[in-house]
Amino acid sequence: MEVIRFIIFFHALLAFFVAGGLFFRESNLKSVTIGILMALFGAHMLLFLYGSGSLVRIFPEYSSWFYYEIGLLFGPVLFLHLQAIIFHKNRIGWKDLLHLLPILIFWLGYGDVLLMPGELRRAYVREHFLSRTMTWNYLLAIQLLIYALLCLFIIIRFKHQILRRQIAYALGMVGIYIAATLVIVWLTWFAEGWRDFSIYYLVLSLLIFGVGYILYADTYYFSIIRKKYFTSSLDARRIAQISEKIRTAFHEEAIFLRNDLSIKSLAEHIDENPYYITQTFSESFKESFNDFVNRHRVYYSQSLLRSPDHHHLKIEAIAREAGFNNKVTFYKAFTKFLDITPSVYRKSSGTDDL
Question: For the chain, how far is it from start to end, CA to CA, in angstroms?
Answer without folding.
Answer: 77
